Target: Small integral membrane protein 8
Amino acid sequence: MSSPSSESSNAKSSPPKEEYRTPGLRGVKTTTLFRAVNPELFIKPNKPVMVFGIVTITMCVAYIAYLHATEENKRELYEAVDSEGNRYTRRKSSKWD
Model:
């Protein structure tokens, strides 16, 4: 029979084994359809692709804002013809002024 002191020394020297789970949904059993519909839950993030996407979306929004601003400026101008037949651009003014 072994002494209690030898059993306690063995228990202290070896750490308890713990099973660690993988973070997120990578360790969960799911269907192929769920993985195909929600790939962002299972794929490791790719920083260069994220940066490219953010820059692309920002440029698209800036371009749309630019088009909106230039179109708005064009609406305030119109082409007028004077009595001599010369064409010139003029800012629109209210009929009531």
Observations:
- The radius of gyration is 36 Å.
